[in-house]
Amino acid sequence: MAERNFLVITHGEFGIELIKSVEMIIGSQDHVKGLGLRPGESVDNLKQLAIELVEKNTSEGRETVVFCDILGGSPSNVGLFLLSKEGVNYVATGVNMTMLISILTSGEEDTLTLLEEAKQEVEEGLRLIDLSFIKK
Amino acid sequence: MAERNFLVITHGEFGIELIKSVEMIIGSQDHVKGLGLRPGESVDNLKQLAIELVEKNTSEGRETVVFCDILGGSPSNVGLFLLSKEGVNYVATGVNMTMLISILTSGEEDTLTLLEEAKQEVEEGLRLIDLSFIKK
């Protein structure tokens, strides 16, 4: 397996809870962490926590791949800042359950390929199901 | 505005927290509720809570649009079951922050158009940002 960790940064608790929800399906995960910006909390504090996680991963020889809720806002600002740090090469936005399951269950070694495949899976997972699915 | 409510059903707390995170950005929302299937909890209980919400909405003359984390698993099974209920016409899967912000801030009257526009916004919001964004 490729030597990399994943970091999910979102407004509020949703990224942290998303990881727990994903673990309900695929089991406990060692290589993904979540950070949330809670209402009233300092962005500088979030940034510092993110930097510490990245530096720990890098010191262990592991890349950090960053996921954010949306492009725009403090969580993605922190994510984009992290690109200036050694060991961070990609920030992906629009995180959802399909995306996390895809990257956590893939055996793909190349990070860019991993992320492109995850994006495709997210697109395929956007299903709109209507009444034709059942007979009322 | 169209007379409709939104219901987000996910594994664990992530849908409930996603709503709170969205509210950090666009303010408090009256027409969206979240339900989560927590580890060890009964699917029948989740289904009953969902039915009660739908029936309340329908009795108030409001459509219920259902969002799920992924297609497959108990939350989406409950969502698909809800299509058999009066007032439920669509279940969308792959919910994320972009999707909820899109549907909660749209003035679109037609629900199918609303959901198709949200899907397109989610696809546009899947950004992969690399080192070229900054100069190391």
Please provide a brief summary of the model.
Two copies of one chain form a homodimer. Chain A has helices at residues 14-26, 43-59, 74-82, 97-105, 111-125; strands at 4-11, 32-37, 63-68, 88-93, 128-130.
Provide structural commentary.
- The structure is a homodimer of 136-residue chains.
- Chain A has a 4-stranded parallel beta sheet with strand order 2-1-3-4, with helices on both faces.
- In chain A, helix 1 (14-26) packs across helix 4, helix 2 runs parallel beside helix 3 (74-82) and helix 4 (97-105) runs antiparallel to helix 5.
- The longest helix of chain A has 17 residues, at 43-59.
- The first copy, chain A, has 136 residues and is of the alpha/beta class.
- The first copy, chain A, has 5 helices and 5 strands, in the order E-H-E-H-E-H-E-H-H-E.
- The model of chain A has no long low-confidence stretch (mean pLDDT 95).
- Chain A is globular and about 50 Å long.
- Chain A has helices at residues 14-26, 43-59, 74-82, 97-105, 111-125; strands at residues 4-11, 32-37, 63-68, 88-93, 128-130.
- Strand 4 (88-93) of chain A pairs antiparallel with strand 5 of chain B, so a sheet runs across the interface.
- Strand order within the widest beta sheet of chain A: 2-1-3-4
What is the first-to-last residue Cα distance of chain A?
A: 48 Å
Portion in strands of chain A = 15-25%
Q: Return the string of H and E elements of chain A.
A: EHEHEHEHHE
Shape, principal axes of CA atoms of chain A: globular
Overall mean pLDDT of chain A:
95
Oligomeric composition of the shown chains: homodimer
Biggest interface between chains: A-B, 49 and 49 residues
Which segments of chain A are poorly predicted (pLDDT under 50) over 5 or more consecutive residues? none
The CATH topology of chain A turns out to be Rossmann fold
> Strand count, sense and closure of the main sheet of chain A?
4 strands, parallel
Structural class, from secondary structure content of chain A?
alpha/beta
What percent of the residues of chain A sit in helical stretches (DSSP H or I)?
Answer: 40-55%
Total separate domains of chain A: 1
Q: Mind telling me the C-alpha Rg of chain A?
A: 16 Å
**Structure summary, number of beta strands of chain A:** 5
The CATH top-level class label of chain A: Alpha Beta
